Amino acid sequence: MVTPLRSFRSFGGASHLFLLMEHLVIIDGHHLMYRAYWAIPRTLTTKAGEQVNAVFGVASMLLAILKQEEPDRLLVCFDAGEETFRHQEHKTYKAGRAETPDDFYSQIPRIVELIDAFQFMHVSDLKYEADDFLCAYARAGEEAHMRVTIVTGDRDALQLATEHVRIAIPHKGYAQAEYLGPSEIEGKYGVRPDQIIDFKGLTGDTSDNLPGVKGIGPKTAAILLQEHGSLDGIYAHLELIKKSVRQKLEEGRESAFFCRRMAELVCDFPLPVPLDSLRLQQGDIQPVLGFFRAMEFSLLSKRLQEFLRTETGKRMFRFTEEESPKALLPEQQMSLF
């Protein structure tokens, strides 16, 4: 029997028994890449001129996630294209988003190389978005009696929060991650996680080019859902809603239910990689070390040294005396900050 990399990080005021549950961390890879690309100056290059700002940012956040979350199992989920059922049903889905520069896409192969160096599993599929994988694996992890942390900035994932599943939104890299469970979501948005798709049906989502109901904002949407429970409940009791709001709801009925469908994540498909394959086992440090050397990441090499001194680092990686912390610094390095 393989001994998992136990994590004792707290989900708020969690009990000791709860903290003994295996910790599954599921990462929205596209969100991490996009956040990294815009957070790190695009002028960051190797001596040979290769642009690596997004690669550096993702590597930095991965180290922070490992240190802070101490996962037992880990998966990175990616978007694969624009052929999902949402794009097929809504031709202008996400059409309002600004065009992503080419130098973002050119770094994706390096980021995949980085993830492979860490020996983390990753998944993508033309049929599904990364969010759908977050959903499928979060539900599977919870059913397997794991506690789950979903790392993403996409608010669609808030619908997945339960007592055993929390959403971690990165801030300042991952130094000030915002953790949202059911109580935090209700306190922040005024609705429960199971009401998030109804909430988005009413308010829409500009990032996905979903209009919702024109004239219904977050405050009104929260009040309506608190009073009537769901989108179906709201439309079943229109006569109880004041005239000015009722008129907007009547005019936006079709849009409301369509936007709710677009916001609902899909979970009912076979996992492309089984849960057992996500378990983190002690691996060789050389692939990560070699990648950092190739990218000239001196700052991250130093952080890697610090991580290797932790109990989690020792359990995750094997290294010889020759690869001890002082020997990990590359000969030619790039300095940052």
Structure notes:
The relative contact order is 0.14. The longest helix is centred in the N-terminal third of the chain and has 17 residues. Strand 5 and strand 6 form a beta hairpin. This protein is 43% helix and 9% strand. The protein is of the alpha/beta class. It folds into three domains: 185 residues, Rossmann fold, CATH 3.40.50.1010; 71 residues, 5' to 3' exonuclease, C-terminal subdomain (DNA polymerase, domain 1, Orthogonal Bundle), CATH 1.10.150; 46 residues, no CATH class. The chain is elongated and about 75 Å long.
Report Rg.
22 Å
State the CATH topology of the largest domain. Rossmann fold
**Structural classification:** alpha/beta
Tally the structural domains: 3
From the N-terminal CA to the C-terminal CA, the straight-line distance is 44 Å
So how many helices? 16
CATH class of the largest domain: Alpha Beta
Count the beta strands.
8
Q: By CATH's scheme, which homologous superfamily of the largest domain applies?
A: 5'-nuclease
- Let me know the largest β-sheet: 6 strands, mixed
Poorly predicted runs of 5 or more residues:
1-10, 327-337
Beta percentage is 5-15%
Helix content: 40-55%
Large-scale geometry = elongated
Mean pLDDT level: 87
The arrangement of helices and strands along the chain is HEHHEHHHEHEEEHHHHHHEHHHE
Q: Widest sheet: strand order? A: 3-2-1-4-5-6
- The CATH architecture term of the largest domain is 3-Layer(aba) Sandwich
